[in-house]
Write a structure and sequence with these properties.
Layout (H helix, E strand, L loop, with lengths): L4 H11 L16 H22 L8 H24 L3 H15 L3 H28 L5
Helix pairs in contact: 1-2, 1-4
Length: about 140
Amino acid sequence: MTTTREQLAQIYQHSQVGTMEEAKDPGEYDQEGGMAKGQLKTMIDAAQELHNMLGENDNLPEWVQSKITKATDYIDSVRDYMKSEVSEGPARDRLLKQMDKASGRTQADREADAKKAAARRKAADKDLADFRKKHGMSS
């Protein structure tokens, strides 16, 4: 499923519900939310434009691939951190529902993905144990 710019914007807007509380040095934090929102809007626009430029079989220079990989990793890390800040309770539930609505996913989809991931981990553990046994290695 391709995520549209509007869907990304919706996910972002919905993720802003609630507040992130942490011990803060008053001099360190000053209206960064507005700055971050502006930067994220620029990222959404740039990502959508790049997405529209690329064909499935386009070859890209290695440095371009590297920059896209780094950008993905960086923004994914920030998202994971922010999601962990609302990892329990009503704020988490509200965020997940909003993300599901924007992406078209459901709680059942998440549960099915979790079951598949658990099955893959179990199969990988069995493969590793079989390999170790075959080659006389201890676990």
